[in-house]
Design brief:
This protein is an all-alpha fold. It has a single domain (about 1-110), classed as Helicase, Ruva Protein, domain 3 (Orthogonal Bundle), CATH 1.10.8. The chain contains 8 helices and no strands. The longest helix has 13 residues, at about 1-15. The N and C termini lie far apart (about 30 Å).
């Protein structure tokens, strides 16, 4: 459920398709084996990608564990999905700088759109 919620938030805020949102979240979490190619393969086999049904239990648990340990997973995923940042480190640095300046993720996204 948490992963599904994160996917929906990234889709809405970054205005991207589901696979793009999922790819950016997996990138932030460092789940390289669930990258674009694997997500597209799952989509072609099942017609859609449902993490609860199509990811292994081990991968789901790892996503939850990593997501709870890392701060700002969804905002970093939004920055990647929207094209504002191309790397996780860049997204993290931009968010850290923005919070120091009192800017929000919404401010950052507005600057780019």
């Amino acid at each position: 459920k948490l992963l599904e919620r994160a996917i929906k938030i990234v889709m809405t805020v970054a205005k991207v398709e589901r696979l793009d949102a999922m790819e950016s979240i997996m990138t932030v979490l460092g789940m390289k084996h669930l990258g674009r190619g694997e997500l597209e393969r799952l989509h072609s086999v099942h017609g859609h990608v449902d993490p609860a049904a199509h990811f292994s239990e081990k991968d789901l648990l790892k996503c939850i564990e990593l997501g709870s340990q890392m701060r700002k997973v969804v905002p970093m995923a939004v920055l990647l999905a929207s094209g504002k940042c191309s790397q996780v480190g860049e997204a993290r640095a931009l968010l850290d700088k923005a919070s120091e300046d009192g800017r929000t993720l919404r401010d950052i996204i507005k600057d780019t759109v």
